[in-house]
Specification:
Rossmann fold, five-stranded parallel β-sheet, 2 domains, elongated, homodimer, alpha/beta, 19 strands, about 450 residues, seven-stranded mixed β-sheet
């Protein structure tokens, strides 16, 4: 539709809550807890037909009873109650609603469709924007706004994560929470009867608090407006997109399901839905990633706040095997391995055994001590032909992972990115000690696919 | 070469140790600690020119002084000392040696090559088999044999892990140690002047303690004997192979390094080294995996001990987005999604909201309770058209991950595999409570690539 009233949606001064519940683990209860505990500055006013208070906060009987107009309504009522509520809210002056109410509450698909249409009919005349229904909700950490029933709250940061799917949103939150990656906005838009991915992109393109946008796309309702929004946003921000709807590629699915003869029809030579989406994303300037893991990796890389000056990577590792595998991944993924200068090679000759291969990836050998790490990382970081260093320490009984990590961190001069992925168990203990905003760290299940900064 | 004396290598009754060291974190010290503390039943006899004892164990001055002949010699001496030592050991009756001595101890590449040739010349007349040099060593947990300087010891199990690279071996050990995956043999073969991947495959094919073999290949010295061994082994055991040497694909590397005109030569249309390796692996009946992460995943899947009766997978998840993504990954990776029977669909109708899509992947919706999990997993597991169930629980504030995992575990009837990948932080706490040998569990950075059992 447009960015009309999205500012009110994401920066409301007052919030009304509908559908709070007492039952433990109910959506209505978690939603109320999240709203009350999110740290929101303005009033969160519960509206409840029966309860005098919700979690200790005075409840009002109806929209009419609200002492002040709510900018934003957050709604967890059964679907049939929502259209008249939206009409009343719109008339009172509310300009945005987040409807988490799940369609599983309604009986039939046809009934849900009719109710959704009724919601739109009620909201549109007032310019009341609707997020959902059947959405997990949204968070704006800088506003203390948590209008969702997610299990954890995002911390403040400058990444936006916009998804249609709530389950992918909670996965991202769960991951990011453990890694200290913060967000400007986190939203799962659900059925997208009104506010859609394009609208959010249009808004976020000009949001000063958002540096990059992570998108999870299931389907695109209106390709024209989406692509127009995507093009505009991609000019101003980095936009990473994961296509979560590939299973809708019916040709593929049908063939794989074993549908007889499905493979031999001319349709099979048409580009698949995924291919069309991928081409459109690229054309619009978005960066498509092939898997959820890649989207998470992108969040991790963007979350460091580092912008690299180039893509010439040096790989330094305490083992030939892991160094080679890492170097191969860099090449396979379209990255570049930096060529070390003669000066750097000469400096490395001083600290490495005579049999070292005098090239990038640099193998420090399994008996690498912290001193050798230090002596090697320094010259490589100083090489003007190197934009970033990927340092990989595999656990050994001979070297000390923490000392190796410290040696790398000490050599780091601020302008480049030594990333410090290590072995599984040891890495965890080293991270807090050496990581800084300009030093990424990964504890990997494998170096493959995740090495690019 | 052959399996000659590999039984002695992997099941020695007596071990001699050369090159023990006092210096903390030295290879010689760690090696000695690992040998003494591994739980080996027979004597481990240190041989040392100066020390009267090594870590409290009486040391002998020379091979001649050893009170009994050692079946296996484990050597961490400088390379130049090794050829005469091997000749002496061979003459005395020792039939296998693991040489961890690193080539970084020697001065020049040419010197290393000459010394390695001298080692072979000394060993061959006696049929003394040599592992290494420049290897991390090997472990046979069932024998309490840890002839390596790895930082942790493998636990006993029925997977064999054979690598050329020591760093990839320690990565695998670090991962497996934390996950309870056990091994029959773990070996990093290093420079492979004698015992090579093919020899190990030949031996392991008939090793009753080994159910499956994980191979990390850097390069194959003798393709003919390797492929012959691979074919034979693959007939008897599952053999998973990861090609860790792809960077040697010089055409690709050269083109990517920016070599002028490199892309336009006719050579570029020849199959690359990686393609040749991949084709050869498949032809021999091995299963190549594209990344180290996949190899680790294979170890995890094989480590459960489950053999599936088929590849018809059902996906059950508490969210449409994650269910669809998982289903897509199954299809993309060449797997099959089971078609649910009418009986199963009818049973699911009883527990799921009316709007559910009546197909696999099965979405339990974000408000799934443990009861809904239980009600859904039971019928799907009982469906004769379903070979395995992948159950994905994304964290929510409404459902309880542990309860959901327990509900799945309780429904599990032993013949199939509910795998239980969950959100990052919550998953960790649920694992110990619900995992059994027939229930895999993953804490994923993304469902992609890792869902197949």
């Amino acid at each position: 539709m447009s960015v009309l009233n999205l500012e009110t949606l994401l920066r409301p001064r007052t919030v009304a809550l509908f559908g709070a519940d007492r039952a433990p683990r109910s959506i209505g209860r978690v939603l109320a807890e999240n709203l009350f505990k999110g740290g929101f500055d303005g009033p969160v006013m519960p509206v409840h037909a029966k309860e005098p208070a919700v979690q200790g906060v005075l409840a009002y009987r109806s929209v009419a009873d609200l002492p002040i107009t709510a900018d934003l309504a957050v709604i967890a009522l059964p679907l049939p109650e929502i259209p008249p509520l939206l009409a009343e809210l719109g008339a009172r002056g509310t300009r945005a609603a987040v409807i988490v109410s799940h369609d599983s509450i309604a009986a039939e698909t046809a009934e849900v469709a009719a109710l959704e249409q009724a919601m739109l009919t009620a909201a549109r005349p007032h310019g009341l924007r609707v997020v959902g229904p059947a959405c997990l909700g949204l968070m704006v950490p800088s506003q203390g706004l948590n209008a969702s029933y997610a299990h954890i709250c995002a911390t403040d940061g400058d990444l936006a994560f916009i998804s249609q799917s709530g389950s992918l949103m909670t996965l991202m939150l769960d991951w990011a929470g453990a890694r200290g990656v913060g967000f400007s906005v986190v939203a799962a838009l659900g059925d997208m009867i009104d506010v859609d991915l394009g609208d959010m992109l249009d808004y976020l393109a000009f949001d000063v608090g958002t540096r990059a946008v992570l998108l999870c796309v299931d389907h695109i309702g209106d390709p024209r407006t989406f692509l127009s929004a995507a093009r505009a946003a991609a000019r101003l921000k980095q936009v990473i997109v994961f296509d979560a709807g590939g299973i809708k590629d019916q040709a593929l699915a049908h063939a794989r399901f074993g549908g007889a003869g499905a493979v031999s029809t001319p349709d099979d030579f048409r580009p698949s839905r995924s291919e069309v989406y991928d081409a459109a994303f690229r054309r619009a300037g978005l960066l498509p990633v092939p898997s959820l893991a890649d989207l998470v990796a992108a969040a991790g890389a963007l979350g460091t706040g580092i912008r690299l000056g180039g893509d010439r990577l040096a790989v330094i590792a305490n083992g030939r095997g892991i160094a080679e595998v890492a170097g191969e991944v860099v090449l396979e993924e379209g990255g570049r391995l930096a060529q070390l200068s003669d000066e750097t090679l000469a400096a490395l000759d001083q600290v490495l055994p005579a049999t070292w291969e005098r090239r990038n990836p640099v193998n420090l050998f399994a008996d690498a001590t912290a001193a050798r790490w230090q002596g090697a990382v320094g010259p490589v970081l100083a090489d003007p032909g190197v934009d970033a260093v990927v340092a990989i320490n595999t656990p050994t009984a001979v070297g000390d992972t923490l000392e190796a990590a410290r040696a790398v961190a000490e050599q780091h001069v601020g302008k480049r990115t030594p990333s410090q992925p290590s072995g599984w168990r040891k890495a965890r203990s080293t991270r807090p000690g050496v990581c800084s905003p300009s030093i990424g760290s990964r504890c990997m299940t494998g170096p493959a696919k995740r090495l690019k900064p």
